[in-house]
Structures are given as structure tokens and as C-alpha cells.
Amino acid sequence: MDDAIQGDAIPRDATQRDGIRGTAYGTAPVPLSVLDLVTVGVGRTATDALRTSVDIARLAERRGFHRHWVAEHHSMPGVASSSPAVILAHLAAHTERIRLGSGGVMLPNHAPLVIAEQFGTLEALAPGRVDLGLGRAPGTDGPTAAALRRTPEARGEGADDFPQQLAELTRFLDDDFPDGHPYARIHAVPGPVQGPSARPPVWLLGSSGFSARLAGVLGLPFAFAHHFSAHNTIPALDLYRESFRPSAVLDAPYAVIGVSALAADDEKEARRQVLTGALSMVRLRTGRPGLIPTPDEAAAYEFSPMEREFVDSWLANVVHGTADAVRTGLDDLQKRTGADELMITANAHGGDSRLRSYELIADAYDLPGAE
Prior knowledge:
single chain; alpha/beta; 9 strands; 41% helix
């Protein structure tokens, strides 16, 4: 890929100048990024979904999106992102510049050493391009979380142990356990023991105040899940900023919010597409998870009054419509929250509609790289 792409120039090393803060291109008020759930629709396969993820990453890189994150979920037929590190390695092989990361890896599901090894490997594969976003929830239900952890000892750990797990992971990433510590002679490789190298910046993710406060106290960047916890967004961001203490990582708060947004060529088509995600959420919340339904299936579904109430509430926080309408909605959201970056997730049945949405949003903001 050429160092300069059509439109405004995006230097090849643009993502390496600052491992956290991005650049806003075109008329975007803040940097724009992608949150990818690797959704699998009815009639599609996980292979199709993963190919779409590559296509989205390439499009995002070409159009000046800052990063592409993949979220860890388990035992959900409608997503194929159970192994973020594996997917990120694949995306790294098909891109050159865009930052890649986890949004997030669910720390309670894994031994900290394993995460340090996985993301040390990713950093070696794509130097200066990897983010390690960490969540404190399991990303699944209780029985699946227990199956992931396997041992009786590990099953006793969970969100309450998150600060201790985070501290251990950070020690492995920095290779700096103190003398006398049981892990002092254990090295996460690839890592610092093999010579001077960068390490992925650690982000904390959250949908409430716990991780917001912890990220602030530790001086880490914070990503909030506005797309499924909108009522908590402003309180959590306020708490993060109030709690923030400058660190070696950041001298000032840096907050990203995940937002569900889908643009289409007309408002009716956008509504048809986002309804598929709403029906999928209804089924998930009522213990009936499945593949993402088709637009026709979603349009024909007879919602109960309670389900309709949920759908209306859910769609109220999905920015959708024409490209201009989505741009206006995203601008308003950024102004209300003061977010330093918007991370857009486009939930729909088919890969083509998701790709079209990101392209339309990029066009609405005059991002570089238009074909």
C-alpha cells in the first residue's frame, strides 16, 4: 500500500506515533474506529463472517479509521469472535497500518500469563499496532464461564479479582516481578526478556463505574460500552475523568465509547437492517440466542408488547438512517459525552450492509481514501 492514499495523506507510521491517541481525519470531530463482533447471519457461516472482518479492516485502514477491535464472546451462535488473538493475527496479515486490538479480552477467563504471551506474539507480528483491551466480565453465561476456567480454583475467581489479575498481567508484560516473587523467574515470551521491545498499551473496558474508576486511578485509557449501557455512559465517563491520575502512560484522560451505528442508502433500509440486531438481542436476553436473523425474518416477527418495549428502547441508542443522519447522530453523541474517540459497531445480518455502512460514514465525514 502506498504511503499516501487517495485524498488526504495518511502516513504509514501514523498509528505508531502515539499508541493511544488517534488522528481525526476529514470533518470527523474525533478519531473514528471499528468494533467488530464478527457476526454470523442466518444462511452464512463463520468463514463468511471472518472474511467480512478482513474486508472491514481493509476498508477501515484505507479510509483513515484509527483502530479495529474484536470483542470476546462465547457460546453465542450469532458471533464468531471467541478467540480475539487468533482473529487479530489474521487481520494483521491482511493490513499494514491500522491499529488492531481486543475490545476486549475478558481477563477472568484466562491466566494472565497466557494473555501476555498471546499479545506479546501479536506485538511481534505487528509492531506498534496492537492494543490490549481488558474486560472484567466473562462475556458469556455462568456455566460457560466455568467451562472456560476448568479448575475448581479458577472457578472461584471472577470480576472481584480483576485488579489483582490486572497487576499480574502488567508484571508479565513488563517482565518486572520483584526478586523473591514466585513468578520472578517466569518470562512471557515474546517479551522484554528477549531484548528491548514495545508492548501493547493496556486499556480498561467497562459498562459501569468499576473499571472507569480503576482506569482513572491507574492513569490508563478507558473504553465504555455505550452501545449496550447507554444510561451509564456519562456517569462512567465523569467518574473516569474525576478519578484520573496522570501516569507514565497518559498525562490526561482518554475515553473511547463504543456506539452502535448503521448507515444505509435510505432510511427505510437502515431500519430494516438494525431491526435484525434488535431481534437478535431480544432472543439473547430471553435465553434463545441464535444466528442473526435476516431482514425479512425480523420484519415478519410478531413482537410481544414487552419485546416491543425492549426493541424501542434498544433502537433509541442505535444511530441509524442515511449517512447524513448518522453523521449528525454521532456528532451529537460526541458533544454530549465529550468522548475522545468513537468506536463504531455495525450490527446487521449481512457483511455487505456492514461494509456499506462504514463506507457511507467515511464519505459523510469526507475521510480520505474514497474510491
